[in-house]
Amino acid sequence: MKSALRKDLESTIGSFIVKELVEPHFDPNWHFHPHYQLFLVEEGTGTRFIGDSIRPFGPGDLVMLGPDLPHLWRSDQPYFDPTSGLRTRGLVIYFTDDCLGADFFNHPEMVQLRRLLTDSRRGICWSGATHDQTADAMRTLQKQPANFRRVLSFLSLLDTLSHANDMEFITNANYVNPMKPADTDENSASTLAYRRMQAVHTYVLTHFHDTIKLEEVADVAGLTPSAFCRYFKTRTNKTFVDFVSEVRIGHACKLLTNSDLSISQICYESGFRTLSNFNRQFRTVTGQTPSQYVKSITNYT
Hints:
This protein is of the alpha+beta class. Helix content is 43%, strand content 17%.
């Protein structure tokens, strides 16, 4: 399977790209690109991987990513079944540092926008009023013709985000893309490494309901178990065990939010073998017990 790695976007006659994405599933490849990206999920569920962060996503998920920050919105498995009738839909804005001129964002008046662009290199998400206002602004921007007013709408959107106080960072402060952005050689070590990570992602997301043996996933990566553990920790800033646990907890969060299953049923449906381990891992990842998580979602809605 060929991984997208560094993705090149099509050229545009405007200063930035606004597109609606409608597909059976989102791009399943772990990749990055030199553009800033503001992305709103409007339809579809799954797990999003951004840098060293793993979280479930669903309609309304809104994030901004800086250049060369690796990411993947992995749709849930039913979306890959061509007979399911399911689809994903999202709205995305791509732009670069020099989209309005080489020094535009370096002028003194742009200090807030520069801070937003810098913060986005860790990935940012929003909730509450900022989220709703941004989603509406993105939909309006999509419908506007490529003229001066569209540029003003774009800057107004960025200005709103730059002054919001309900943002959250997505990656850890010390996360660094382990692949050099300029390294796109098809046979380079880092390109092969990304393909290896893509294979691991796919394997775990397909088998997390079951017992995952280290020997099997190491074989998928083409490494010995000990070499794979060292390799995975270097590439992701977390252990493979923690990675699997976060994927399972992400699935459990979706079930707690969108199903009538009991906590015990969700525990086993998410790949855990004991309720005590599920509760312990859930609290480690989310900072809450499953019951507290359900209450917080109920209170929010």
